[in-house]
């Protein structure tokens, strides 16, 4: 799990879930619960967007490293 989510993401998930459960017992099944569910969904969406962004960043860095290696090889060939 640590591989896919950062510590901050896990903390946010736990805190949001706990607050949602507390709100469920304190407020009961009322329309305010819909607001709490909305907050939960927004938190989940932000975490998923953060995860997707992190994966894209890793891919971009990998491609940049490949480009850098190719440029280095070309520079070495020109120097020789």
Task: Give structural notes.
By secondary structure, the protein is mainly alpha-helical. It has one domain (7-79). Helix content is 86%, strand content 0%. It contains 2 helices and no strands. Helix 1 runs antiparallel to helix 2. The mean pLDDT is 84.
Give the helix/strand layout.
Elements: H1 7-27, H2 32-79
- Whole-number mean pLDDT: 84
Report the radius of gyration as a whole number of Å: 22 Å
Terminal CA distance: 48 Å
* Derived structural class: mainly alpha
Number of helices: 2
Question: In the residues, how many domains can be counted?
Answer: 1
Biggest sheet architecture: none
Number of beta strands? 0
Shape: rod-shaped
Q: What is the helix content? A: over 70%
- How much of the sequence is in beta strands? under 5%
Low-confidence stretches: none
Q: What's the SSE pattern? A: HH
């Amino acid at each position: 799990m640590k591989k896919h989510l950062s510590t901050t993401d896990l903390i946010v998930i736990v805190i949001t879930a706990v607050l949602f459960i507390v709100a469920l017992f304190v407020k009961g099944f009322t329309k305010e619960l819909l607001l709490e569910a909305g907050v939960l969904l927004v938190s989940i969406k932000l975490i998923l967007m953060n995860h997707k962004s992190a994966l894209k960043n890793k891919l971009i860095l990998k491609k940049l490293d490949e480009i850098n290696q190719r440029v280095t090889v070309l520079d070495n060939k020109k120097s020789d």
